Amino acid sequence: MQAEKRSPWPLTAGVCAAAAILAGCGSAPVPREQLAVGQASIQAAQTAGAGELAPVELQRAREKYAMAVAAAKEREFEAARKLADEADVDAQVARTKAQAERSRRAADEVRAGVRTLQQQINSNAPGGAGAGAGGAGTSPGGSPRP
After folding, report:
1. pLDDT at 144 over 80
2. Which of 28, 67, 88, 131 has the CA that lies 20 to 30 A from 48?
3. How far apart are CA 66 and CA 60, in angstroms?
4. Digit-coded pLDDT (tens) for 82-92
5. Picking from 52-61, 63-72, 131-140, which range would have the lowest pLDDT averaged per residue?
6. Pick from 49, 39, 63, 34: which is nearest to 94 by CA?
7. Phi and psi (nearest 5°) for 119?
8. Residues 6+ apart with CB under 8 A from 52
9. 29 pLDDT exceeds 70?
10. CA-CA distance, 105 to 92, in Å (whole number)?
11. Do 80 and 31 contact (CB within 8 A), yes or no?
């Protein structure tokens, strides 16, 4: 019996297909996690008031996130990952800046309140515009002074 001659094409095609699959596996996967983190950071920054208190930083984060989504759609996954990470960082900066500004404003309000209380205390102090502790012209026991 004579051995059949087989065409090398099926084997070659199989090797090429396997190589293509392996090459595809070697490329970066879709950066779903980084995109989700970037989006969550932007939402957190918005909730923290970054739209009003850190609008430049928030806008920068939104732009980078949009570029990351576009890069992912173009299957440029490494660029998408990098842009999503940058969007996350920019959103964190925006959130932190907004929180710092709210803290600064709260501290200013507390200082203004302390100044008001200090002025009230000074105006009620003995020798001040108002009556001191125990009333003007009275002894510590509350009886009139001689």
Report:
1. no
2. 67
3. 10
4. 999 999 999 99
5. 131-140
6. 49
7. -65, -40
8. 98
9. yes
10. 20
11. yes
| Single-letter amino acid code for the residue at 124 | N
Length of the chain: 146
Q: How far is CA 122 from CA 46, 109, 112, 131, 134, in A?
A: 43, 20, 15, 11, 15
Tokens for 88, please give them. Answer: 């996350």
Burial label for 76, CB within 10 Å (0-12, 13-18, 19+), is middle
C-alpha 77/C-alpha 25 separation (Å) is: 13
Candidates 84, 93, 94, 80; CA nearest to 39 is: 84
Q: What is the DSSP letter of 126?
A: T
CA distance 94 to 55: 8
Q: Using alpha carbons, list the distances in angstroms from residue 86 to 53, 57, 95, 118.
A: 20, 11, 14, 47
- Which residue type occupies 141? G
Burial 105-138 (b: 16+ CB within 10 A, else e): eeeeeeeeeeeeeeeeeeeeeeeeeeeeeeeeee
